[in-house]
Structure formats: structure tokens, C-alpha cells
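Milestone 3.1: sequence recovery, worked example.
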């Protein structure tokens, strides 16, 4: 029987940070932060000590995959919600870039910059969840996709969410006013309740969209696997991280599996969006084909005009 040292506390990260090394853990709970009971071993590369090397590899893969998904979304010129969903993947890419710097201690926890980057990382995480939530309503056409009101409503509200979370983070890390790092209630509410509610509302809205507005039911499978990957990642990361870390001899921990499952969940968001959007081929333009076609037509015209 595997002993699970997981200890969940409402409005406190103490038990969670003892289980998994989140980016905010060195800044909360007590003056020198909270250290997990078991975490992935470090490696030295070119004289630089790299923390969480396995998670670093997944972060790099996630950044590359986000870039690929953004490229493929942009090639679907006439797809519904193309610009809106691109914002979500861009925010996810930026979040993973910051996570790479923080988790690997490229920005050391002792650095004066660490609280700023951690607050920005938390802000980007919540902004990504908020942007995903708003993308869930694009299909209902409350505002026509691609129009300024649709795009700027997402941009402005997402920036407001980002700013609020960054402020709460910095205020908590520096004990400003009612915020303090021993009981980070505000960050706990944002991290679990706000982000979780955004995810839940998005999933429910998309199930409603598929069931009541689409004839094809296959996208429900994409939603199911996306939810499965996400929840699996959260459970493994927050509950089974320590026993996994011990069984893997400190080569892997819950953060690695959580990051991997989150990447798979994001990829299912792309797969779902791709499955429910139909491109109007009559108005779609393939630039490479157009260039090749124009060259062929030009050659044909030149040959017909040559004197015999």
C-alpha cells in the first residue's frame, strides 16, 4: 500500500507545496518558502545547475507544439473564431516560456526578479483560462468572430484579469495590506476557484454547443479526452507526485506528468476547434498553390504569344 502524504488545506498551499514544486511555493507559507518532500533531481550543464530537467524537456516540446498549432490555425483563413483561438494558444505559449525560466531556476528563487516573474506567470495562467472561457462563447455568435468588438473584448478583459492576478501575487509575496504570504487566500481562490470555474464553464458550454447546434457528435470525444487529460494531470501532480517521485528514483515527479497532461489537454482543445470549424474553400487562399498556378498561367500565355 503506497502512503500518500498529500494534505489538502482550504486557502493554503502548504500541503500542495509539500507535494509538488509549484513556481509560487518558494514565496509563500513562510519566509523561505515551502520545499516539496520529493522532487526531480537536478543536473549540471555547462557549469549551470538545471532544476527539473525532465519538465524542461516537456516545456520545450509544449512551446514548439504551441507554435505549430498557432501556425495551423492561421492557415485556416475562413474558419470561425480563428483569431480568437489564436490568442489562447499565444497565451499558453507565453505561460510555458515563463514556466521554463522559473521551474528550471534559470531565474533563481533568491533573485529579486523571481517574485515579478512568478506573478506574471500566475497572471498568464489565469489569463489563458479566461481567454479559453471567452473562446467557448465565440461559437454562439454573441458577437461576430473576427470583428473588433469580439477581438478587443477578449483582449481588454484578458489584460484586466492578467493585471489583477499580477497585483494580487505581488501584494501577497510582499505582505501588502490584507495580503500576506503565510495565508495566501487571494492566490488560492484565483488558482483553484477562478481558473477551475473558467475551465468548467468552457467545457459545459462546448458540450451544449455540440449537442444542440451541431449534427456531428464526434467533437464530444475531443472534449472527453481533453477533460480526461487535464484532470489526470491535476490528480497526478497534486496527489501522487511524492510516491511517483520516490518510485522513479527522483528522475521524474508529478510536475513532469502534470505538464505533459496539460499539453495533451491543450492539443485536444486544438483538435476540438479544428473538428467543429469548417473552412469555406471557395474563399480560402493557399498562397503556395496560387504562386505555382500563376507561374503556369504566365508560361502558357508566353507560349501562345510567341511568333511562329
Amino acid at each position: 500500500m503506497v502512503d500518500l502524504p498529500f494534505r489538502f488545506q482550504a486557502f493554503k498551499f502548504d500541503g500542495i507545496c509539500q507535494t509538488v514544486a509549484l513556481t509560487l511555493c518558494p514565496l509563500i507559507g513562510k519566509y523561505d518558502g515551502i520545499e516539496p518532500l520529493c522532487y526531480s533531481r537536478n543536473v549540471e550543464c555547462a557549469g549551470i545547475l538545471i532544476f527539473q530537467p525532465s519538465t524542461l524537456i516537456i516545456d520545450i516540446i509544449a512551446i514548439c507544439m504551441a507554435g505549430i498549432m498557432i501556425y495551423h490555425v492561421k492557415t485556416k483563413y475562413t474558419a470561425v473564431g480563428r483569431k480568437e483561438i489564436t490568442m489562447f494558444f499565444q497565451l499558453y505559449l507565453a505561460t510555458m516560456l515563463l514556466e521554463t525560466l522559473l521551474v528550471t531556476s534559470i531565474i533563481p528563487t533568491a533573485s529579486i526578479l523571481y517574485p515579478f516573474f512568478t506573478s506574471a506567470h500566475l497572471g498568464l495562467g489565469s489569463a489563458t483560462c479566461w481567454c479559453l472561457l471567452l473562446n467557448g462563447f465565440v461559437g454562439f455568435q454573441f458577437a461576430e468572430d473576427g470583428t473588433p468588438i469580439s477581438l478587443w473584448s477578449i483582449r481588454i478583459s484578458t489584460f484586466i484579469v492578467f493585471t489583477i492576478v499580477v497585483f494580487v501575487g505581488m501584494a501577497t509575496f510582499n505582505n501588502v495590506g490584507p495580503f500576506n504570504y503565510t495565508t495566501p487566500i487571494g492566490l488560492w481562490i484565483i488558482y483553484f476557484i477562478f481558473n477551475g470555474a473558467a475551465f468548467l464553464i468552457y467545457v459545459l458550454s462546448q458540450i451544449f454547443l455540440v449537442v444542440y447546434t451541431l449534427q456531428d457528435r464526434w467533437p464530444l470525444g475531443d472534449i472527453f479526452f481533453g477533460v480526461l487529460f487535464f484532470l489526470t494531470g491535476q490528480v497526478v501532480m497534486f496527489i501522487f507526485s511524492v510516491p511517483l517521485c520516490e518510485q522513479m528514483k527522483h528522475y521524474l515527479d508529478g510536475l513532469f506528468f502534470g505538464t505533459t497532461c496539460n499539453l495533451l489537454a491543450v492539443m485536444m482543445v486544438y483538435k476540438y476547434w479544428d473538428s467543429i470549424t469548417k473552412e469555406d474553400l471557395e474563399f480560402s487562399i493557399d498562397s503556395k498553390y496560387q504562386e505555382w498556378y500563376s507561374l503556369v498561367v504566365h508560361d502558357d500565355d508566353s507560349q501562345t504569344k510567341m511568333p511562329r
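The two ends are 91 Å apart (CA to CA). The longest strand covers residues 43-45.
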